[in-house]
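Narrative of activities, Objective 1.

The group set out to show that a structural description can be obtained from nothing but a protein's sequence at a throughput compatible with the screening campaign. Below is one input-output pair from the validation batch, recorded exactly as produced.
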Amino acid sequence: MAFAYDNVKLDKGMYQEAGRSFTQVLEGLDPSERYKGTSLEGLDAFQRQLKRFDIKVRGSGSDVVEKFFRTADSAVLFPEYIARAVKQGMDEGDILPQITAAVTQVEGMDYRSITAQADGDDKEMKLVEEGAEIPSTTIKVQANLVKLRKRGRMLVASYEAVRFQKLDLFSVTLRQLGAHIARTQLEDAVDVLIHGDGNGNPAAVDTVSALTYDALVDFWAKFHPYEMNALLVSGDMMVDMLKMEEFQNPLTGLNFQGTGKLTAPMGAALLRTSVLPAGTAIGLDKRYALELVQGGDVVVEYDKLIDRQLERAAITAISGFAKVFPEASRVLKVSKGG
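Output recorded for this entry:
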């Protein structure tokens, strides 16, 4: 049986189509729906091109970098391979999906989020008498733009230096690069959660002299009517919490040993991160607190990678964060004198 993917003409202009990624362009030329019920079902258009040129990117039998440059067509696949490896590194261990309520994709660098007046009586569904006016909640566009930042790294390597390098090992380096980008994005998210997004909405801060179970319960209670279902903590805060008697509950220990995930005594997901200052924790209702704004996917400078066979190429990702409901997140700090 002949497959269409064998005859797709590849060129670097496929990376330049506005509003569509390289894989989306490929899917338009070679839709995955055609392969249902075949041995290629489950592969996307890019993965089918790797199969076409017999390029193995993972495992002990992975090919060398040089395999991508055997033909002009296969060389076009190299930037997408790099972008996918970097994205995999960003996703591995990334806690942003666990603290974001919504993800918005935008084109360009200008974006305004929305906010709703949700304090006081606006939180209650009042009884409406016959003929009376129905109370309203006002949704407004934020006064200030969301700050979108470009985060990235420069890939510097000559073709001669890596041509015989196994792709499986080369991917490890790329995934590490992605992990660095993800960490800086988390730093941006934490900064917005603490200080606000420029629209006068910094988090409320509770300061205690020592981290105790009672202090955590009091902190948790202040979220009503929201729910504290995620708790970001610094390394020292994590250690102090694990030493609490309440964390020595057998069920908590069994859950940690069985899944590797820790749950706070009040039911929140406990997320340790080194981007928080010492003695700091951020509690949030992840359903309502934070919006992640992305200016597209991971971008790789394709010209240098294809025409000049590596050399120097920038790998970047554009993102920013906005607060949705400011009351859905709070900061807990342990004073140094405690």
